[in-house]
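Narrative progress, year one. The postdoctoral researcher (J.K.) led the effort to move from monomer predictions toward full complexes, under supervision of the PI. The following entry was the first complex the group processed end to end, covering 561 residues in total.
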Amino acid sequence: MIQQERMTVVRQREIAKNIFEMTLQGQIVQEMTPGQFVHIRVSNLLDPLLRRPISIASIQKDSNEFTVIYRVQGRGTNVLSQKQIGDEVDVLGPLGNGFPVDAVQEGQTALLVGGGIGVPPLYELSKQLNDRGVRTIHVFGFQTEEACFYEEEFTKLGETYYVTNDGSKGFKGFVTDLLNELKPDFDVFYSCGPLPMLRALSSMYENKKGYLSLEERMGCGIGACFACICRTEEGQEKDYVKICSDGPVFEKGVVKI
Amino acid sequence: MNRLDIQLPGLDLKNPIMPASGCFGFGREFAQLYDLSKLGAIMIKATTVKPRLGNPTPRVAETPAGMLNAIGLQNPGLEKVMAEELPWLERYDVPIIANVAGSTTEDYVEVARRISTAPNVKALELNISCPNVKQGGITFGTDPVVARELVEQVKAVSKVPVYVKLSPNVTNIVEMAQAVEIGGADGITMINTLIGMRLDEKTGKPLIANVTGGLSGPAVKPIAIRMVYEVYKEVDIPIIGMGGVSCVQDVIDFMSAGASAVAVGTMNFVDPFICPKLIDELPAKLDELGVKHIKEIIGRSHRP
């Protein structure tokens, strides 16, 4: 159920250049699943006005905490990055439909491909897949080394590869370049990141089952405002989907990307 | 005693607070959050004869204390609204104000004729002010003669009172208000959004795919208040005021300027519980103002 809660900041730190990790505590954590997002009001004032949709990076139900990882790229996220431990933040969530963890079975392998700030939701996904006995392979693309994060965390969960556009860390190029060399053996792929990456993956793994998490500018975050609409592929039941409430995760082939 | 009830043509409002059209869909999403029967009314999303898929994305952009949108009247079309959305809303004890949109006079007349027969539709809101569609909408909203003629035709077929939603993107909004009053409008809703733009900082290109969008949110409130104030003086039909309402003081301001009820738009996105919160906060505000019933403050700005 969607709820609005004033949650408390229990941790906040910069983990890469302009990338912040913030942990919040509150009851709505109990409802969260990997791939969902929260809609955060960064200030009680009227400016910045709109909430910021941010994906859930990890969920700790036993301590009622969850973590988001976000990039400071405008006024709203800048205000958010100033929050101190003990500050309260107005959170609406959890929102949307996350990754289906049961799409892959125990003993099978999942390929997790992330790009930039699309990497965070794959962390909770990987944790839950590993808990189910699924082997995970992680392939992440970033612009440069200084934008990379969570290498240690992901390495603990499975094979992890980093790709940077300038080659400053790991393989040089795009994730698809590395995947072409790596030729990983897997059963299902999950991905979150820029559209060109999702497009390339969808055609590269045309015959594989896959799930994509999409991003779009949002208004309400709950499906009422029709800001984050995407057209669907031919043959789908509806002409369009709302990224916020029908997604943000869709099975490959549903949304025209 | 209910200190908040308001009677308007076709509308028996428990309180003067209602979500504005386009900010509330057809109510389904907000029904997950609270009981819609609490609302004074619901202004549902604009309905056109045929389904519309709307504009390309990005459709929204934030601005200082406001936002731009160019959704493009996306809606499932008259058939579906009549068959699915309105019957679904019947479970709530709340009057529906159906926002009617179109590209031609015939479109408006067709939607008005049919949608006004739905049992829970108690009034129409004629949308002659959407700035985000290529044809219709705004062209009806900027020429007083065209507006008056459209209202006459819609009035001739509608089974329920007709309110007309005015555009602020005109030189003289009083002239528009008077024209629709002469055309037979039962009330006025105002204001729709102001046409604006935001540019991408790096490229200098418009951020919204439609190039321009409608500005809403607290940033537009002073303009809306001024326009309600001006129109109230010159027309005799009631006004439902809107434009940047974010707190209970804003409700008081709109009603003081001359609105008989108030719609909340953009703030539904910021705080989805804003409407019930405002309704709950109003009685204490009336105490503070030393007022028994909210009706007493309507138009008080104009009193000597």
